[in-house]
Please model this.
Amino acid sequence: VEAFEGTDTEYSLFVQAIGNDLLKSGDLAVVGLRYTDATTSNRYALSLNTRYPISDTFRINPRLQTEYRRNTDDDTDQWFVRPSMRMEYRWRKQTRFELDVGGEYSNRELTDDTSQTDSYFISVGYRHDF
Model:
């Protein structure tokens, strides 16, 4: 493998606040902020992650991440938005069924054009604790 140029020093700062029992006993909310100074970009990100019990056996977990990226190597701007929703049903004490759906939407302002990318995902599974 041919050698390639290494990166310079990169920095990342992440802070978050966590709260529980805000709307209902057993709920959870996490807000996070991140700044990254990398070799080829500067990034600013916000994340929201919540968990809300609908009942003793069913809970939802809406999440949202957004990021602004200033690409210093080609002088372009880029936005990412990543919404998702996770649902969990506890069938018995040791068995859970999970559904996770979401997407990522990206918009990059190029020198003479705009690039837009959309992607989606779905994941279905179960967990059994022994």
